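Notebook B, p. 112. Complex prediction, attempt 2.
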Amino acid sequence: MSEQKAKTRQVSRRVKFLILADPSALGPVRAAVEKLAEEIGFSEADGGGIALAHDEALANVIKHGYGGSCAKPIEILMQEIHEANEQKGIEVVIRDQGRQVDPEVIQGRDLDDVRPGGLGTHIIRHIMDEVHYEKASKGGMRLRMRKYLSKKK
Amino acid sequence: MAKANKISSMVESIDRVDGNMIIRLKGDVTLQRSPELRGQLAKLLDEKPDRLVIDLSRVNYMDSSGVATLVEALQRARKTKTPLPLLSMTSRVKSVFEIARLDTIFSIVDSEAEALKT
């Protein structure tokens, strides 16, 4: 008698948004990423952190990529990820059509210099396990960030 | 305690207590709404209160633009030596200050009595 192997199919949650570069659009998308994080299994605190990192990334696109609010698009893809080593987590990819910069210059500033502004990148790197900026081939930038349920750092 | 009328959707009230002011915020302090807060805090500091307490007990969420607005207010307050204690942060808001290492720069208190002595 041949054994039939049970096939398992992993369904990964995935949500895609297309918003215009305006701060008013951030709230609903933040709520969605926090909800997705919760469904993947992140704690409320971690889900809140992921939502904050995501918000900071979008704010940076609006302020620096586009130079302020405008009717230009920002694409956000958020999805559950499953790595080969059984690590599970969330990935958020943000794609804009704004100013291109060398990813090497996107660094957080010195926090000992207490002044308003310039905290977004530091917050993103502090919260997420992986943060990768790249110039997109057809213009603009792409930010890919990941956080795992069990710390991979 | 004298209460002012509601100023905006983010400011629940502004209370005056013996030369001090307490601005009570609510909701989310974000990129969208922080310009409004900046203007409000500047206006209150111009009145040169003995201290300006910022009540954050009803603030659910704050991003770095909200934090930046408070840093700006702190710098302004320091010029006139006006204490600017932050009252009753939720853990979610406090974590943003901790990540930015501003939890040791601001005076963060848990009670109004403590805020009015700081």
